[in-house]
Every structure is written in structure tokens, then in C-alpha cells.
Design brief:
Layout (H helix, E strand, L loop, with lengths): L1 H19 L5 E6 L7 H17 L3 E6 L10 H7 L4 E2 L25 H9 L1 H5 L9 E16 L13 E4 L3 H8 L4 E4 L5 H6 L5 E4 L1 H6 L8 E17 H5 L3 H36 L3 E4 L2 H11 L1 H10 L1 H9 L3
Parallel strand pairs: 1-2, 1-3, 5-6, 5-7, 8-9
Antiparallel strand pairs: 4-7, 4-8
Helix pairs in contact: 2-10
The structure holds (2S)-2-hydroxybutanedioic acid (LMR).
Family: Belongs to the bacterial solute-binding protein 7 family.
InterPro entries: DctP_fam (IPR018389), TRAP_DctP (IPR004682), TRAP_DctP_sf (IPR038404)
Protein name: TRAP dicarboxylate transporter, DctP subunit
Length: about 325
């Protein structure tokens, strides 16, 4: 009897003790591949700060930049396993999960980031955030980086100049088709390898934003950058449905508000960096920036535009029309 009593009081004491101890904070690992001084890097750091301010010891955000934890080829897979809670891969990197986001890779679809904003804020644009829910991923918002430019070991003025050259691309079939339309050779490689591939001349060129080319020093190993603004590099801030829906309602609401604020902050930086990092690259004198005449630009449009037709069925003609209409 005495031992039953002792066991009972021990059980009560243990239960009480556990109840009194503070619950472990929820850890949000945010993994990304770019440098810290970029729209995405700064957005992630701002989110971490806001969460620390507002959710104190309930939630801790850990940011892993520069592909430290995972590259974009792995991050969505491990997110579904619960090893990472937040990421913001380029919209080009979701093709294993949905066809429709390929829209954003179509060459010469958006004239500038203002048009991108108009489309993303529309009903059609917002609807795309939910395109992967059945696959266990939720888009929490769009984040900008900027318009893409072409860098190369050779001067690129007209599409024929790209013929036969090897270009690194993100893992996207649209981007593959875009370079094939130029009779160039697209090669899918992770972002973390691009600098070395360029430096060792294993590839001839790549397409990226001013911000990525500046922060990762691509301009130091590429003698020419053509200011083509031919495509968009934007991100989807993404989490797993299971993680997000499993959060207490108040925590989820506070996190969403902090995310919205940090995304807005990142987007302002993206606009600034399009101009600032472009200028810094020009000032470095390490590379020649080629500005296209309207006639030259029209040739690039003509060469790449057939890609739209190739992907029209997968993406949807209505969606393409809606996105293009955002230019007006
Ligand atoms: C790339 O792979 O070139 C980009 O997606 C990197 C990034 O996240 O901006």
C-alpha cells in the first residue's frame, strides 16, 4: 500500500513539474541560398527580428543563408519531412510540385517589377499561392529579387551571339526551352556552384539579377553582361501545410503579420538593389555592361517568345493573358 502511495505521489509530482516547466519554443529554420545583403537575405533577417520582438520565447527563427543548410534542390523535400520550416526558392524551382508557377519563367512576360506587383496582387496571382496545397506546401507570399540579365564570356548583342554557348540555368523546363530557342546549351546547376563553373570556364554564361551577380561576384568572372531584362527572378515564401496548420492560431496570425511586413521590406530593397547593384557592377569596371538598342532587344523577344506557345497548355492561356495584361 505504502509503495502504491509513493508511486502515486511521484506520478503527481512529475506531472506538476512538467506542467510548470516552460514549453520548448517552436523552432523555425529558414534556409536560403543567397548572400545576406540581398532582398531575400535581408527579408529573412527582418523576419527573425520581428518574431523575436513579438513572440519572445514562444518561437525562435534560425536563418541559414548561402546554401549553408540545404540547396534549393533539396529544401522542399526536407520541408515536407519537417527538417526546415521556411524557405523562399525562386518560382522557377517548383516544377516538381506544380505546372502553373512556370508562368513566371516565360521570357519577356513582365516589363518590370511594377507589372509583376500588379499581377501578383490580383486574384489570379494570389490564387497561385495555393497551387501546391495538395502536395503539402503553402505559399505565404511573393518576394522580389528582380529582372534577369544575361552574363557571358562573349559579348551578346543579338540572339545569334548566344548560339552554341553553355548557360547555367535553374531547374526549370521553361528556362531550358528559352536557351534552346537560341540554339544555346542550357545546363541545370545549383546556385552554389555557379561562381566556380564560371571561374573555371566550365560554362560560358548564366542569367541572373543584378543583386545575385553582385553579391556572389559573378561579374568578376564574366567579362560581359547584357542588360536584357528578359525574365523575372522572384520567390515564393513557402512552408509545409502540416507545420503551418499545426501552429496555435494566435502564433500563426502573429507569424503571418511578421512575414507580410518583412516581405514588404524585402520588396522595397529589391527595387533599390536593381539600381544600386547594377551601378556598383558598372563602377567596378570588371565587366562591360551592354545596353541593347530597341531593334536588338526586339530580336531577343522574337527569338524567345515562341517558348510561350510551348508551355501554353501546361500553364493555361488565360493565366498567361492575365499576367501579360498587367504590363498596362
Ligand atoms: C538561382 O538559383 O540563380 C537563384 O534562384 C538564387 C536565388 O535564390 O536568388
Amino acid at each position: 500500500k505504502r509503495s502504491t502511495l509513493a508511486a502515486l505521489s511521484l506520478a503527481i509530482a512529475t506531472t506538476l513539474g512538467a506542467g510548470l516547466a516552460a514549453a520548448d519554443p517552436i523552432v523555425i529554420k529558414f534556409a536560403h541560398v543567397v548572400a545576406e545583403n540581398t532582398p531575400k537575405g535581408l527579408m529573412a533577417d527582418r523576419f527573425k527580428e520581428l518574431v523575436a520582438e513579438r513572440l519572445g520565447d514562444k518561437v525562435v527563427v534560425e536563418v541559414y543563408p548561402n546554401s549553408q543548410l540545404f540547396g534549393d534542390d533539396k529544401v522542399l523535400e526536407v520541408m515536407q519531412l519537417g527538417d526546415v520550416q521556411l524557405a523562399a526558392p525562386a518560382l522557377s524551382k517548383f516544377s516538381r510540385y506544380t505546372d502553373v508557377l512556370a508562368l513566371y519563367d516565360l521570357p519577356f512576360l513582365f516589363e518590370d517589377l511594377h507589372a509583376v506587383d500588379r499581377f501578383q496582387q490580383s486574384e489570379a496571382g494570389q490564387g497561385l499561392l495555393k497551387s501546391m496545397e495538395k502536395k503539402g506546401l503553402i505559399g505565404l507570399g511573393y518576394l522580389h529579387n528582380g529582372m534577369k540579365q544575361l552574363s557571358s564570356s562573349q559579348p551578346l548583342r543579338v540572339p545569334e551571339d548566344a548560339k552554341g554557348l553553355k548557360f547555367r540555368i535553374m531547374a526549370s523546363e521553361v528556362l531550358e526551352a528559352q536557351f534552346e530557342a537560341l540554339d544555346a546549351a542550357p545546363i541545370k546547376k545549383p546556385f552554389s556552384e555557379v561562381f566556380t563553373l564560371l571561374q573555371t570556364k566550365a560554362i560560358d554564361g548564366q542569367e541572373n539579377t543584378w543583386s545575385n551577380m553582385y553579391s556572389k561576384k559573378f561579374f568578376e568572372v564574366q567579362p560581359y553582361i547584357t542588360e536584357s531584362n528578359h525574365g523575372l527572378l522572384d520567390y515564393l515564401v513557402v512552408t509545409s501545410t502540416e507545420f503551418w496548420n499545426g501552429l496555435p492560431d494566435d502564433v500563426r496570425d502573429t507569424l503571418k503579420a511578421a512575414l507580410d511586413e518583412s516581405i514588404a521590406y524585402g520588396n522595397r530593397i529589391a527595387y533599390d538593389k536593381e539600381a544600386e547593384d547594377r551601378q556598383a557592377i558598372i563602377d567596378s569596371k570588371r565587366t562591360e555592361v551592354i545596353e541593347l538598342t530597341p531593334e536588338e532587344r526586339a530580336q531577343w523577344v522574337q527569338a524567345m517568345r515562341p517558348v510561350w506557345k510551348q508551355f501554353e497548355d501546361e500553364i493555361g492561356a488565360d493565366l498567361i493573358d492575365a499576367a501579360y495584361a498587367a504590363n498596362q
